[in-house]
Amino acid sequence: MMKEKDKTSSKIKIVILSILFSIIALIGFIFLARIDYEDIIRYPHFLYTIPFILLVFLYYYRLSSPSLTDKRKLIISLILSFLFALSLIAGYQLRVSIALASGIKGKIGIIIKSIALSFLFIPFFELLLHWSVNPFTKHPSKEEKILVKPWNRILVFFVSWAIILLFWIPVLLAYWPGIMSYDSHRQFNEAYNNIYWELQPIAHTFLIHLAITFGQKIGSFESGVAIYSLLQMILLSGSLAYITSLIYKINKSKLSVLLTLVFYSFLPINSVLSISITKDIIFTAFFLILSSALIERFLTQIKHPVVLDVLIVISGSLMFLFRKNGIYGFALYSIIISLASFLVLLKNDNKNSSSKIKLLFPAIICIIALLVGFSFINIVKSSLKAGNGPASEKYSVIIQQFARISYYHKDELNDEDKIIIERYLPGYTSNPEYYFSLADAPKYNSKSSSFDNTSLLIKDWTHMVINYPEDCIDAYLGLIAGYFFTDDIAISQYLGYGRNNMRGLLETFNALKPGVDGDIHIESVSKLPNLQYFFEGIVSNEEYLKYPIIPILFRPAFYIWIAITCFSILIYKKRYQMLLVSSIQIAYFCTVLLGPVANIRYALQVILAVPLLLTMAFIRYTPALPPVGNTSSSSNTGSSPDNSEK
């Protein structure tokens, strides 16, 4: 009788807590809605009653779970929920006010609102962490292993490659001979005149030179551009096919392969950017090959490690040629790997020499890739006699902060502040130009030579941060909002969007068409105009905004939050070796956070790596992954990484 009363009392407590937590979540949602009411409250109020009731039931379901005693899971869920809620509160404040709430009182208000809103997400993140250890899939029985015939991995690679190309080639025909937007006007003219500057990757500009030179020989510039676009598409799709085959090697799931191919083949971002002649695409292809090869080399059972070692060095070295961020990101990654290797070596001091070399090998291979990459860069630069790029290119964040200060405090600046701003942004104390999510305007108007004196720059920047801390914070958050705010539309609002502009989510206009200033003119003639019209409705006219949920698929922040969740799951499951090897994504993205804008093409490597990150986070049983701490090729067909770590 007492036990029944205790059970009843416990259920009542859970019901009360479920309702209480749901009410707090509702209060948090009201806080959010008050910031940007029209964009958030798009449907009749009574429709929100159903989600509230469902949230109460979800809380009851999770609070009744025996796994609630897992403090590690609860702490990680709370942190993720708070950070995601904070991103929404901050994001909408930046959208409406172009600044966070000012003062200490305002910042405390943001924290309180974020805590309240986090109750809306806690059960979802907790459930994700629960599923990562207890997925719907179960260990295959011996009978199932015999009955289910596995696919050949090499066949998976080539079939995946062919399928992706099959769905992408019509997009090339629609935008024939390729998309020449973004920095194309500058790079194509450099390539045409065979004069190179480091403002854009020299190797990429030289590839464009080879393409248009070859095109001129066979009849037209357009033919050369079309060949370049096709080769770039083949390279990117090949890197995605490699990821797809690696996913299959890890989990042996045919469904995972099919879902991955659907994601790669049908998401318009992928196919349109694959023919966009910008440095980011080739860089992304090599980055994905490198990061996937690192995972396969150090986290799976392999027969021919030397092949992967060579692939890591080559892909890493070529990656450096197409984006300087790649050098800085990989250098940071190499430092992380080296420190981890030495720490492991110190803990295993009693091992023999060959074992010590194996422990240090990840660091060694990374250092070799860096050295070869630097050699490639110097050889290309000296061979093409390229000029140095402006030093200001590295300081987008500082330039944006100075521009914001001059824009909002033009009449309040003292003499010292004016001298500092005029030193880097001539004319900005009297006629400042500032847009909170894009640093290009002040960067192009900056005095590049002033940025050569690094010590003076740091001194001046420190002075401005101390005197205008909130403006510096708001300026920086404005630049990176698209990477954390899942409802960010700032760039298309500023640059304009629509079929006529061929601008919006992506830029697809021809910067080289006749009538545009420049030395070289290249025509764009669609072979499939109806298909181009359809894609323009998505990437330029942003018609997906009319529908619920769908817009989030076109936001880089959505994929970044998936990546953050995957890394959090690896921490929760104590898969530190997986986290360490795949942290190349984190290391590189740290450099992206110092860029001039939150552009979807800058986050492409994260977007395209999401299927692999999800596989690593949620995989439970696999014959390809040995237990953590064992990267040898010894047989391990019956163990579970989760069980081994527990």
Could you describe the 3D structure shown?
- The protein has helices at residues 2-35, 37-40, 49-63, 71-97, 103-118, 122-133, 142-147, 153-174, 184-193, 202-218, 221-251, 254-266, 268-273, 279-299, 305-321, 324-347, 353-384, 396-408, 415-424, 440-444, 454-467, 469-484, 490-495, 529-539, 556-572, 576-582, 584-592, 604-618, 641-645.
- It is mainly alpha-helical.
- It has three domains: 2-133, no CATH class; 151-388 and 551-645, no CATH class; 391-484, no CATH class.
- It starts with a helix and ends with a helix.
- Mean pLDDT is 85; it is low at 626-646.
- The longest helix has 34 residues, at 2-35.
Task: Report the radius of gyration as a whole number of Å.
Answer: 26 Å
User: Can you tell me the number of structural domains?
Assistant: 3
**Proportion of β residues?**
under 5%
Structural class: mainly alpha
Helix content: 55-70%
Provide the succession of SSEs: HHHHHHHHHHHHHHHHHHHHHHHHHHHHH
The total count of strands amounts to 0
Largest sheet composition? none
Distance between the termini: 38 Å
Query: Can you count the helices?
Result: 29
The shape, in one word, is globular
Low-confidence stretches: 626-646
Mean pLDDT: 85
